Amino acid sequence: AESMYGALVAAWTPDHSRVVLADGYTIGDIVLYEIDANGDRQVLYGTPLDERDAGRDYPLSGFGSPSSGLPSTHATVSGEGILLRTTLFVDTGSPAYLELERPGEIEPVTIEGLVHEGAGELETLQHLEGSRYAALYNIEGCSWAYETVFDEGGRTLTVERVLVGEDELSVGTLHGLHYDEGSGGFALSFCTATDPTQLWLLEPGAEEPVPRTRERVLGLAPELLSAGEDASFDSHDGLRVSARLYRPSPELGYKGARPLVYYVHGGPQSQERPIFAWFSMPLIQILTLEGFAVFVPNARGSTGYGLDYTKRVDKDWGGLDRLDHVHAMTEILPQDDLLDVSRAGVVGRSYGGYMTLTLAGRHPELWRGAVDMFGPYDLVTFSQRIPETWKPYFALVLGDLEKDEDRDFLVERSPRTHIENIACPLLVIQGKNDPRVVEQESHDLVEGLRASGKDVDYLVFEDEGHDVLKLPNRVRCYDAIVGFFSDHLS
């Protein structure tokens, strides 16, 4: 069962007599197969990529989790069908049922008893035991989790209780959920924008979860950190863009309009969420402690708001999502008297680094400083240098180097094409061992900037890859970014 796109095991019946595989081409585009003992595959749902007609649109199944891309599919207790997450009926995801003896026929499943409100999506279904499932939702970037029971005959999921989303386990992110089949209890990990990851237990029959850890940010009173506020806005074409604004805590005593740091997340098909354990949130908190306001949008192309929203960046890198950022900087944020957008800097990692370079080169009047962390500089060389296993995927979502029109697009959208327009100082950060955006990309960028007489600092971590993970390196990285913005936005 070979496939250049995956062939992941997606589900298996309780007696292991039937196995379902999934081929994932791009986000939301997943085809399901059943495989027999000889390795032969029968399509259960979807059209394989090599059987598609050119120019014809094929519906996206959305079988995978938006955050992980992995299939969210489970064989039922009866062994007759699969309970799965799909976008075939609702763009933001819903449960559905596929009977194994009726390939190609997906039925909607009703879920009863949801209590959350706001924009978001069903992330995944997690099997607990028997006919019990956890339904995990991402609503405005925050986690909701429900314990449910599936009625296979009635095609209904019924919520029995809310696990995450209320009281102490609210306005934060669920990292892991473990169900103990022996006792029926839950262990989970959860964090917020101001609180590190904590472990919680929900005992059988208990109404409230009990914290089992008391992790905290040493040396800082919690009231000095910023929980953030909703700053969602309507973009240039009326599309709603979810965003959060982190201001310095009033307890810090800063007066007057604050200089602004504009943070662009990576992916691009990812999402910035209130996760203290993630690289960005400690940086955001340090910046607010130093008196900066930090604006964090989830522009079109982000996950968390439905498949249509996520797919809007496919083959449009640096296009309409770039205009979301420009609209925020020129039309939305200037309306806030507590922000000084004349003292603004932009920072991003990976795709966020690419967007940082794009914004600095195509809209230089907006920025006094820019920090690029391992962002693609030249989309042609980037596409040539990525791992071989990535190339089929990027040919579909970014551009195919074998096609002249795609190559022209990659040149036009490359920061390299607009490097001469950059007017602000830059800090470029790179891991020497990065297999995704190789060090040569940032080296070429820095050499090009210096050849043009631009103001650029270059920080290379010899023992990092496509991230900054080691604690001494992370401290040095945070210090460099905060120091850079302190120098250029003050």
What's this model, at a glance?
By secondary structure, the protein is α+β, with helices and mostly antiparallel strands. It is 19% helix and 32% strand.
From the structure above, extract its key features.
490 residues, alpha+beta, Rossmann fold, nine-stranded mixed sheet, five-stranded mixed sheet, 9 helices
Structure overview:
This protein is of the alpha+beta class and 490 residues long. The protein has 3 domains: 1-107; 109-216; 222-489, Rossmann fold (3-Layer(aba) Sandwich). Helix content is 19%, strand content 32%. It is built from 9 helices and 26 strands. The protein has helices at 280-289, 307-311, 320-332, 351-362, 379-385, 391-397, 404-412, 439-451, 471-489; strands at 8-12, 19-26, 29-35, 41-45, 73-75, 81-86, 94-99, 106-108, 110-112, 120-129, 132-139, 142-151, 156-164, 173-179, 186-191, 198-202, 210-211, 229-230, 233-234, 240-246, 258-264, 293-298, 339-349, 369-373, 426-431, 456-461. Strands 18, 19, 20, 21, 22, 23, 24, 25 and 26 form a 9-stranded mixed sheet that branches. A 5-stranded mixed sheet has the order 9-13-12-11-10, with no helix packed on it. It has a 4-stranded antiparallel sheet with strand order 1-2-3-4, covered by helices on one side. Helix 8 links the parallel strand 25 and strand 26. The radius of gyration is 24 Å and the shape is globular. The relative contact order is 0.08. The mean pLDDT is 94.
Q: What percentage of the residues does DSSP assign to strands (E)?
A: 25-35%
Number of domains: 3
Overall pLDDT metric = 94
Query: Count of DSSP E strands?
Result: 26
> What structural class is derived from the secondary structure elements?
alpha+beta
Q: Work out the oligomeric state of the chains in this entry.
A: single chain
SS summary, helix count:
9
